[in-house]
């Protein structure tokens, strides 16, 4: 009986794929986004530089990748989309610090940034209202079954999310916080 249990455990372990994961080397163990990566608007005084990100174990079959950054705690009734990127090549394994600045030419080849809820096709750093509890910022990398989604500088985060709903084969998320 022990031999059967050991064989079954070995078979289950051998069949497990590596986990699709995303993280930022700029965020410490406490999960708080450093000031440098926060907005320079709405009373915030960050540098509005996009976080460096890294991910691993993109699933086989991904034809492209997409990234979103969303604040579900924003007092809007619908959250706040801080950043969307679609159409990244599937072999992209991360984004360097500052890639999200509009028009800087640093996005992966073929990638497109959608419009954030501040109205720009760029990264918009965290800036929760003064005195709110720290907000949660969910960064999600999506493995997509299409080479290209219909995303351009005018595509809202909600529309990017809608398209991803129908084209995601896997996703990985990490949640960081920021408060003031």
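Q: What amino acid sequence fits the structure above?
A:
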């Amino acid at each position: 009986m022990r031999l059967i249990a050991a064989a079954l455990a070995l078979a289950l372990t051998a069949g497990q794929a590596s986990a699709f994961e995303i993280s930022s080397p700029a965020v410490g163990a406490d999960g708080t986004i450093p000031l440098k990566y926060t907005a320079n608007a709405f009373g915030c005084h960050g540098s509005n530089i996009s976080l460096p990100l890294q991910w691993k174990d993109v699933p086989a079959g991904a034809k492209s990748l997409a990234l979103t950054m969303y604040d579900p705690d924003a007092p809007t009734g619908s959250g706040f989309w801080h950043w969307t990127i679609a159409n990244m090549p599937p072999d992209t394994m991360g984004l360097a610090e500052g890639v999200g600045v509009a028009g800087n030419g640093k996005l992966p080849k073929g990638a497109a940034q959608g419009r954030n809820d501040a109205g720009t096709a760029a990264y918009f750093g965290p800036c929760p209202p003064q005195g709110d509890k720290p907000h949660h910022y969910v960064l999600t990398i999506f493995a997509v079954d299409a080479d290209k989604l219909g995303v351009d500088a005018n595509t809202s985060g909600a529309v990017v999310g809608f398209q991803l709903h129908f084209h995601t084969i896997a996703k990985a998320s990490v949640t960081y916080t920021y408060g003031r």
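Q: And what stands out in the fold?
A: The beta strands are 21-23, 53-56, 64-71, 80-88, 94-95, 112-113, 135-144, 168-178.
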